[in-house]
Amino acid sequence: DNLPRTSLPTFKEIWEGYSAAKFNPDKKKPVSKDTVRNYTLAYNRFSELHDRKIVNITAPELQVILDRYKDKSLSTVGTMKSVLNQMYRYAKKYYDVEDITKTLEIEYTDSANPIHKPFTQNEIDWLWDHSDDYRAQFVLMMIYTGVRPQEFVKIETKNVHLDENYFVGGLKTDAGRERIIPHPEKQYLIMKSNFKELTYRDRHDNFSYALFINTVWTPYMCEIGMDHLGHDPRHTFATLMDKANVPDNILKSIMGHAQTDEKGRIDVTNAVYIHKTIEDLREAVEKI
């Protein structure tokens, strides 16, 4: 039977139960010592949450900790995310705890070849010069809104307000969900039928994130000779806003990041009480 909420385990207790099963030496295929060491190191990076009840930990709090390590390698941050995924699957199985890891994202740094790079001004100018192509229009929309590609494909037309130059959207965390994003008879803004004639194999007209990247984004980048990943417009937006000296709290409001203090903790005061009007946000975006 499920335990009452007051009896639900801490983050540390979930780890102890999960790791005992995961690292059981009697398994047919016991995990290596390196895996045990790496997983334990990843778990210890969440030390500030160890004594917290698992049900009281929020996705934004986990995201803040992951974001602290974005200057580390994919191996480091990826292992942290993997440990979280497995711990929460264990918690859901044995304690019926909600799996909040599905919305988490990781960023990492390859010192020899950084994974993300902003569009150059020349590239942006080229896209404007070819903005009669709807694919260029979509890329420009992503650049000038900072929206993630997985959010972009889920924007519903009912939430697009062209007369006021903004739309409402967001998928990632409580901070990112349903945020107002300034923005220069179908359900979604972007549909498969924008790019091809639908066939019997297309059960739905809307894109998934992977399908958009594989069938629209990557082919278009190859066609126009630009080497960019799907999240590069978001990095471009942040770079342009920084150059325009847009206040950090406004940038975070648009990009959907929770407000944090100097130690990376969720700043509830800012998140709850700092409200920016649509005009404030639009004025900030118009600076770029």
Write the layout of secondary structure elements.
Elements: H1 11-22, H2 33-44, H3 59-68, H4 74-95, H5 121-129, H6 134-143, H7 149-152, E1 160-161, E2 166-169, E3 179-182, H8 209-224, H9 232-243, H10 248-255, H11 268-273, H12 278-285
Antiparallel strand pairs: 1-2, 2-3
Helix pairs in contact: 1-4, 2-4, 6-9
Short description:
With 288 residues, the protein is mainly alpha-helical. It is 45% helix and 3% strand.
Question: Which residues form runs of ≥5 with pLDDT under 50?
Answer: 170-185, 257-278
Bin the helical content. 40-55%
Strand content: under 5%
Global shape: elongated
Distance between the termini: 56 Å
Number of E strands: 3
Mean pLDDT: 76
Task: Please give the largest β-sheet.
Answer: 3 strands, antiparallel
Distinct helical segment count: 12
**Class computed from helices, strands and strand pairing:** mainly alpha
Strand order of the largest sheet: 1-2-3
Q: In angstroms, what is the radius of gyration?
A: 21 Å
- How do the helices and strands follow one another from N- to C-terminus? HHHHHHHEEEHHHHH
Give keywords.
elongated, mainly alpha, 12 helices, 3% strand
